Amino acid sequence: MSNEKSANAMSRQWLMLFAVWAIATIATLSSLFFSEIVKLPVCSLCWYQRIAIYPLVLIMPLALFPLDKKVIAYAGILTLFGWLVALFHVLLVAGIIPKAAQPCVQDIPCSETHLNLFGFLNMPMMSLLTFTLMAVLLFLAKNRDSEESM
């Protein structure tokens, strides 16, 4: 009975980490589509967010086959970094952070958005939601690991 419970917990943990990989892959392909096909300009903050999410596409599958729970720490650090940059970017676009604090070059200002869905869903907000969802999944996978070790 205990082995079956442990196997179920491992299976749910694996699914959560797989979901993080799927989200990172969709976000990576979407960012490449918008920059390389649609030709939307990429600002400095967008590049920092890409630096945080692109490695997850390669790191996560290595930890899934077989399941290596150490990936939660590595993925968590990248996700936290990306989340902080995305939050800064959202606040900059919203005008809460002054434009003088933006690190972008003059030709591609970080405060401008070129895609806006439903009046509020721009690229920085999509990035923030993506990193938030990945952080929640990583947190749940970590807690599953803690419950399992008790």
Automatic annotation (TrEMBL):
Protein's membrane topology: Multi-pass membrane protein
Record bears the keyword Chaperone: yes
Keywords: Chaperone, Disulfide bond, Electron transport, Membrane, Oxidoreductase, Redox-active center, Transmembrane, Transmembrane helix, Transport
Main location: membrane
Location in or out of the cell: Membrane
Swiss-Prot/TrEMBL GO biological process terms: protein folding
Superkingdom of this protein's organism: Bacteria
Ranges that cross the membrane: 14-35, 47-65, 72-97, 117-141
GO MF, any single term: protein-disulfide reductase activity
Keyword Methyltransferase attached: no
GO cellular component, one term: membrane
InterPro entries cross-referenced by the UniProt entry: DiS_bond_form_DsbB/BdbC, Disulphide_bond_form_BdbC, DsbB-like_sf
Similarity comment text for this entry: Belongs to the DsbB family. BdbC subfamily.
Identification of the protein by name: Disulfide bond formation protein B
Organism in which the protein naturally occurs: Litorilituus sediminis
High-level lineage: Bacteria, Pseudomonadati, Pseudomonadota, Gammaproteobacteria, Alteromonadales
